[in-house]
Specification:
Helices cover 48% and strands 8% of the residues. The termini are far apart. It is mainly α and 146 residues long. It is elongated.
Length: 146
């Protein structure tokens, strides 16, 4: 049996109901005066075991729903993480590369091309420096001249 209790910690009357249902569930002690079920969603919820049913729930346009319809409604709101993990996930860089052409801007694209050219030039220079360093040729400031 399951219970649903939801209340604000600032509301003293609601907290008495929470304490009562917890005492009943944990210690099996019936609260004084019994617990009155409060199922109105506008007020603090107090739903003791057995006080609700699937038939009382409504999903679409006031129609009573079957268990399958309820499960489908919950699955729409809260997708199954196991099912989502089976889908192939793209890395951020791949996703950005796919989305980038749809947000083209000439000044940004020109800067990207310039930076890519500078990066390629830098890599060639590092490779050249490593090759010359392996041959034993270095300059006095540690950077090889072109």
């Amino acid at each position: 049996a399951a219970s649903l209790v939801f209340a604000s910690t600032r509301d003293k009357v609601a907290m008495k109901g929470v304490n009562g249902i917890l005492k009943q569930l944990v210690f099996g002690a019936a609260p004084k005066g019994g617990l009155v079920a409060q199922l109105d969603p506008g007020k603090p919820l107090l739903c003791p075991p057995g006080k609700d049913s699937l038939q009382a729930l409504e999903v679409n346009n006031g129609q009573q729903s079957t268990e399958k319809a309820l499960c489908d409604a919950v699955a729409d709101i809260f997708p199954d993480p196991a099912r989502m993990s089976k889908e192939t996930k793209k890395s951020d860089s791949v996703q950005v590369a796919e989305d980038l052409p749809s947000y083209s801007e000439s000044s940004v694209d020109a800067m990207v091309e310039q930076r890519l050219g500078e990066l390629q030039q830098y890599r060639r220079q590092v490779e050249r420096n490593q090759r010359l360093a392996s041959e034993g040729i270095t300059s006095k400031d540690g950077v090889l001249a072109n």
